[in-house]
Amino acid sequence: xxxxxxxxxxxxxxxxxxxxxxxxxxxxxxxxxxxxxxxxxxxxxxxxxxxxxxxxxxxxxxxxxxxxxxxxxxxxxxxxxxxxxxxxxxxxxxxxxxxxxxxxxxxxxxxxxxxxxxxxxxxxxxxxxxxxxxxxxxxxxxxxxxxxxxxxxxxxxxxxxxxxxxxxxxxxxxxxxxxxxxxxxxxxxxxxxxxxxxxxxxxxxxxxxxxxxxxxxxxxxxxxxxxxxxxxxxxxxxxxxxxxxxxxxxxxxxxxxxxxxxxxxxxxxxxxxxxxxxxxxxxxxxxxxxxxxxxxxxxxxxxxxxxxxxxxxxxxxxxxxxxxxxxxxxxxxxxxxxxxxxxxxxxxxxxxxxxxxxxxxxxxxxxxxxxxxxxxxxxxxxxxxxxxxxxxxxxxxxxxxxxxxxxxxxxxxxxxxxxxxxxxxxxxxxxxxxxxxxxxxxxxxxxxxxxxxxxxxxxxxxxxxxxxxxxxxxxxxxxxxxxxxxxxxxxxxxxxxxxxxxxxxxxxxxxxxxxxxxxxxxxxxxxxxxxxxxxxxxxxxxxxxxxxxxxxxxxxxxxxxxxxxxxxxxxxxxxxxxxxxxxxxxxxxxxxxxxxxxxxxxxxxxxxxxxxxxxxxxxxxxxxxxxxxxxxxxxxxxxxxxxxxxxxxxxxxxxxxxxxxxxxxxxxxxxxxxxxxxxxxxxxxxxxxxxxxxxxxxxxxxxxxxxxxxxxxxxxxxxxxxxxxxxxxxxxxxxxxxxxxxxxxxxxxxxxxxxxxxxxxxxxxxxxxxxxxxxxxxxxxxxxxxxxxxxxxxxxxxxxxxxxxxxxxxxxxxxxxxxxxxxxxxxxxxxxxxxxxxxxxxxxxxxxxxxxxxxxxxxxxxxxxxxxxxxxxxxxxxxxxxxxxxxxxxxxxxxxxxxxxxxxx
Length: 905
Hints:
The chain is built from 31 helices and 39 strands. By secondary structure, the chain is α/β, with parallel strands linked by helices. The longest helix is centred in the middle third of the chain and has 18 residues, at 380-397.
């Protein structure tokens, strides 16, 4: 392919966000021995060895240029003794020389090596690449290792200190077609038309980010590609995608893949930054990177598409990773952590003990209630046998330790046996609540990179339509025709039967997984942002179960009714009979008082676990209870609710149904549950306060506060001083291990500096920043005042929302309230948006009358600019109770500005 010829030039002045002082032209010999001129962005061209800690060698892909790295360059250069950023424009691209020749992957790798030599880089160098530039810089990095002949390039002027890649390839099968939408671009007769003759390919790439790139940024990206001749390199780059075994760059791609393996073997710190919405570099590429470089740290930027370096968090994430993994690497965990976790019984210990005990084997382990009034009771012996059969059957299917298995099965005996079978053989259970909705569930399953999907027919149909990864196993009744259509390999029943035959023939299950092995990925509710996968090891999961047992007063001889799916799975670990009531578990508000009473009666349960929304509906339907059902509820001595704050008046009404129970509301999150425990009697003894009292820390847990500053931000210092408002931080041994593929989020969640009194109470890495704000009182009780993201910061104060909302709700006629701020900070105004009740209830958005508004202003002590009444406030999906204040605030600002805001719910 003949391309245009043009000398290298520096970019025009005034490009958005680009410091013109970084631009320089550098002459270097290319792969053919010909001197060529490159344009590079260099943040410290005259820096000496003591002026920077190292160099980031950044290589763009197609159809971008070094402008892609401006955010990283700006962030790195703002840090004293920070990193030098050298971002290159590849030859034929950006503002580098147009040589009139076609360059293949191998050529570009050699070209880059020549440039590095010409630049005279020395010391620590981290290779950074995006898109096909990731292959080029990975090839250079691997070559650097080989040329210098040592680990991390020891003994040379350059030490390969790390590798950072973003939405790029480590390999691509020779027999596969072009990845993603490149299939369309590479169709005969189309390539030149969309890449060089027009700028369609460039404009399409720039249209991918969400939110959209500002117009000046798009213009800057287009600036070196204004004419067809300047875009010839874009066309050549696409044409060089190694499709098929005979492609000219196939050997070079394979060499890069081998080089990545060498980088992994050398232990080079590696960071994989990923935009999951990329239509070219799909999840397959991310899974390939994880498999080839198992020690790599991965962060998925939830809303990012192809241009991941454009994500606002990208620079901070990379710089933090460099600090923690390259400059100041932490020592690997020693035997101390293992010894702490080994003392906890395995999750399946109680199941094996009770199922193998003739005196207990026939007693119920799981009872499933149906809406038609029938029930299914599964005894311990049968549950143990089915668990063993499934474990043996899964191994026969090819499920091995470390593989991820998505469980999309309703709570009950099938889900319980499947979960414990997978845990026993070392597979990693991926549990995402169907309450996330189709899109949220799809993001969770796809992002987790599962190897298997075990689900009911509805879930498997979604898996096929949405192209979820993993082989399929069906749960429940399903026809042969449906099995074939959905691509299902087997049913759970068939897996169990195959396992039974293997066990009868003397098959022994694999060795038990170690306490440090990953056991489960549990997804958060998604009520405070995209759902996150929370990883627990076997030791941590067992500790979590034991902590829950102590808190919810459940164990052998203490049956539990669980109307919240995750807690139904802890029964076997605690040796407790677990009853699943007749309801739609994805919608807690569907539980009726009668269904709850029937579930309690079925096992004479002493403990009940309800989501807050379930409590509301149980009270609403209590009038339908029969005398026998009321008697059954009267025997409950422990009622628990978690997932969202439960108002005290609601708990007092529940006590009328369960007079023996002191309603308890343990506080925690998917990342650490339980953290604190409190009963109604404790709340009443504490009296009114700012926020909701969630009690004192449970055994083995420490709660501290990271104080807020004047901008509403929480620092890293932790205190336990009474009355100090800040982010609530929880420490303990059953805190999560880490977030799945969210390295930056995980690093932020454990970024704390305990006070001297807290040092030694919690091991490093066992802290979790909850994202909630609150304070400790003089008695050590924890009070929650809202979410950190919902704190309202005005020109002269920082206000947490819950206390204001509680006082608003004390006014007759106000049911639920949300406190938000509108307008710019310097002129921010306070607003309350509320649901009315009784005579104040409304069917459409209404500004409250002056009398009610004045009553709410007086009660809250706030000069509210408005009180808006709405039919209903928006809540989260899983709990049906957490108010989405961010959405309320955006909506209220639009309404009060006279704009068409649309419906709030």
